Amino acid sequence: MPFIRNTWYAAAWSKEITRQMLARTIANEKIVFYRTEAGGVAAIEDRCPHRFVPLHLGRLEGDIVECAYHGLCFDPSGACTLNPHGDGKIPRAARVKSYKVVEKYNVAWLWFGEAELADEGLIADFSIMTDPRFCTVSSYLHVRAGYQLISDNLLDLSHGQYIHPMFKNAEGPPHFEPEKNPSDNEVWARFSRPNQYPNKYFQMLGYPADQRGDHRNFMRWSTPSLLLLDVGMTGVGRPVEEGLSIPTSHLLTPETDLTTHYFWAMSRDFRQDEVALSEELLRVGVAVFDDEDKPVIEAQQIAIDTSELMALNPVLLQTDGPAVRARRIVDAKLQAER
Amino acid sequence: MPFIRNTWYAAAWSKEITRQMLARTIANEKIVFYRTEAGGVAAIEDRCPHRFVPLHLGRLEGDIVECAYHGLCFDPSGACTLNPHGDGKIPRAARVKSYKVVEKYNVAWLWFGEAELADEGLIADFSIMTDPRFCTVSSYLHVRAGYQLISDNLLDLSHGQYIHPMFKNAEGPPHFEPEKNPSDNEVWARFSRPNQYPNKYFQMLGYPADQRGDHRNFMRWSTPSLLLLDVGMTGVGRPVEEGLSIPTSHLLTPETDLTTHYFWAMSRDFRQDEVALSEELLRVGVAVFDDEDKPVIEAQQIAIDTSELMALNPVLLQTDGPAVRARRIVDAKLQAER
Amino acid sequence: MPFIRNTWYAAAWSKEITRQMLARTIANEKIVFYRTEAGGVAAIEDRCPHRFVPLHLGRLEGDIVECAYHGLCFDPSGACTLNPHGDGKIPRAARVKSYKVVEKYNVAWLWFGEAELADEGLIADFSIMTDPRFCTVSSYLHVRAGYQLISDNLLDLSHGQYIHPMFKNAEGPPHFEPEKNPSDNEVWARFSRPNQYPNKYFQMLGYPADQRGDHRNFMRWSTPSLLLLDVGMTGVGRPVEEGLSIPTSHLLTPETDLTTHYFWAMSRDFRQDEVALSEELLRVGVAVFDDEDKPVIEAQQIAIDTSELMALNPVLLQTDGPAVRARRIVDAKLQAER
Hints:
eight-stranded antiparallel beta sheet; Naphthalene 1,2-dioxygenase Alpha Subunit, Chain A, domain 1; 2 domains; alpha+beta; Rieske Iron-sulfur Protein
């Protein structure tokens, strides 16, 4: 399965990249990440060109990785810096791929494509995650399903009514508002519940259980599969700023064709200093994403096996519009890169 | 691997089908079974046509299954009865397969073939299992081997001498009597031990250890792979009715090409009210079928891998006659359906 | 993957072959080994030609194996000696392969090739293992990697510096001396450390930690993949006989394309009667081969998947010379047998 090359992938939370080497497969490429002594991020191919042993099994010494097997050394540029054997000559072919990585929004972003196109400005805006007015908690889960099945999930939030007891409303599934002027790069999926009582989630966040309000779930999708949910609840007909907002980031990164790295974060502009609430939100996120979404999405992947979902002619509902559009944008970019 | 379509498959014991949905794969098709409020059996495709999530993960409400993911609803005919989203229109393609099932002999029988040929009268006679003069115990095991390897096992009962200590006789393997007038639909495999001391099984059932008798094992095979063993022991030269009879049913249903649902039952017309004997028989059945036959048959499947047994040119003995004939009947029916 | 036919494979340690049947796959062929009543080694195909059940599941009675399933009997020549059913006739096709095995150096050697070429004299010299002047300890490990990846490992002992703390020297990797007059059947890989302090291994064996000496690691490779390491340490410039010698045998036998039987032995001509030292050497061997080499070699196999190593164009260092030559000899022999 091809993946878009000229786009930024969320490779890791910044805090995951330390002086301990991190082996991670991104879009079928095996990569070892580590923090350089100067504090930057090194990302090189996780395979020694000599005998193909994974480099992350070796030792990190300064900015240099020494292969576990015969001690060849590589620097962050992928160049071999030492052959400790025989005449010590370094063969011309003794080098590994090096990857461009930038850090932004507490995420290490990886670029597979053409170097001259690697513009940091192309990273979708997730400044909410580092906005000092917000308190952000974040986590990671691994899903045995292709990344597009997860973005399908996030672009059709009507599923919350069925899968997530915490997000269920007595008045049934949310209202879906089809997008009017779709762009070529972004997709919006807007679900709302005007004038309803709060679900258990908003009650937990402090919205009075006996008070109606306007509840919004506006999801923004960007390539390759980065989603930001503007979710909040406010008094009926009142401006958004008055109510609770808890924007949630979902960064989906293909590991392989059929597995995905799922980074998520919840940011809030209220009760920022309450550690107990932060812990509760992490607990809720795990309950919802790990324990409720993941089993269903993985069952779906097993059901479709290695087929591409759209090739199986799924029945389409109105609420599938955004997910279908996101897939079309991916297809168009893949087509353009061919 | 193709399976016969116009035949009845044992899908489940009737008692397995309840208000709790039962997901079971039959002949490579994923099916969800449940009991309707009126007491019938519903059997529909276990895959929502919208996003392909297994329906058994959802909820059963009355006779309606609600998909776990986005709440589409299906009735026992496979029709979609509710789309809770957007304009609520039900797409024409929103339906799942429904399967014809009848209950007979405490078994739910499933028909894959042409509807007009689904004649209940074609189900092989297993009335022994519901005959009030008999007490019947039943069980189920799952075998990682193709169903024909198991019917081969049951059609050559000479294996009892080697695999099953309880069925072993001091005088060696049983006498095999080749079939004289074979039919096109049934196979008989008759093994007998005239004038011998009882094996441990008949001793357990009450036949005196020091008394010779005539022991019979007459196996009847019907399509697709339903076997009834007339097994009993009586005094030398005495009529069958005088002795012990414990007819045993073996219903083999392909799950996939290489795995099988194995339903078995033992019926007896003596000591019917002895609960301890019923429990002992279940224990013996598990010891014999699960612990002795199954490992050998699974080792056989591993040895032949995905090959068809006959394509490997096995050495054939006289006692293989019935198994070979059963395979030919299956092949002929498959050929006819092509 | 083809394997050389006209060569001797180490099938088992002699002590492994007893009256208990041993099932072992060698070069993709499933074989059952057992000791005959006369004390010889029988090796026959581990698959009954009747229903393909592995023969090792059956019973050994005298020199005869009785199949677990229907009691066909086979002798060490592979001939069927009994059909206990029906007319008792033995079908002409009822026979299994029999393999030529000889015992030498406490090893059972198996020959796949042409019978008339099966010359015991072709077995590479491992007389060290039965030399009464030496005390030999031996063991076995199973490796999930092709046998050539392991012989690569053993032919480039510079890896000891990186993988094995016990074999590491303060002065860096050993000196490698390229072979001058390579033969067509053997490969030598000579590594040495003249005038160095002993590593932990030699300290353990009794070489004084504060005394410099000459340390040699001379590896001899023979087909198909049999390696003998002449390893020892002696005073600087002193003759080998004065110092410690602990020649180590490594017999690599392909189980399948991607798995290997690894038999190893350490022989010593000093402190032969010290049981504690024998136990310590076995412990060291397990630490080094099982816990240090095996994970790296298996990671290498996973990295190259089912590819042939050389087809992936590995970077070659001077120290790879012997491994490359051994592979070429194998390729030439395979080519000649085609």
